[in-house]
Design a protein that fits this description.
The protein is mostly beta strands. It contains no helices and ten strands. It binds FE2/S2 (inorganic) cluster (FES).
Length: about 120
C-alpha cells in the first residue's frame, strides 16, 4: 500500500476530462514516458495509442488532436494516409497494412481519463 510517498506511486498522467472525449470526435494528446500518445472515445470507451505510425514512427494527427478521417471511421495517418481501426489500432490500408498502433492503458476515474 502507498503510505503517501509519491515516489512509491506509479506515474499517473491525466489525459483529459472524460467529457472532452466523444465518439467520433477529436483526440486528446498526451505523453507517457516522454513518448507521444493520444486518446479517443470509441463506442463509449476511452482508448489510447502511442502517437507513432508503424510506418515511420511519425505522429499521426493531421491537425493537432484530429486523428479521424472525415467519416470518423478510421484513424488516418497524416503523412501517407494509412488507415487504422480505432477500436483495435490495426492498420487496414496503407504502407503499414497489417501492423498495429501500440496500445496505451487508460481508465476513467472521477470524470477523468488517466494513463499509468
Ligand atoms: S508515416 Fe504513417 S503512413 Fe507513412
Amino acid at each position: 500500500m502507498n503510505d503517501g510517498d509519491p515516489s512509491a506511486a506509479p506515474a499517473r498522467v491525466v489525459v483529459a476530462e472524460s467529457s472532452a472525449l466523444v465518439d467520433g470526435g477529436r483526440g486528446a494528446r498526451f505523453e507517457v514516458g516522454g513518448r507521444p500518445c493520444f486518446a479517443l472515445r470509441v463506442a463509449g470507451h476511452a482508448l489510447a495509442w502511442r502517437n507513432e505510425c508503424p510506418h515511420t514512427g511519425g505522429e499521426l494527427d493531421w491537425s493537432e488532436g484530429d486523428f479521424l478521417d472525415a467519416d470518423g471511421r478510421y484513424v488516418v495517418c497524416a503523412t501517407h494516409g494509412a488507415l487504422f481501426e480505432p477500436s483495435t489500432g490495426r492498420c487496414v490500408a496503407g504502407p503499414c497494412k497489417g501492423a498495429s498502433l501500440e496500445a496505451v492503458a487508460v481508465r476513467e476515474e472521477g470524470g477523468l481519463v488517466v494513463a499509468e
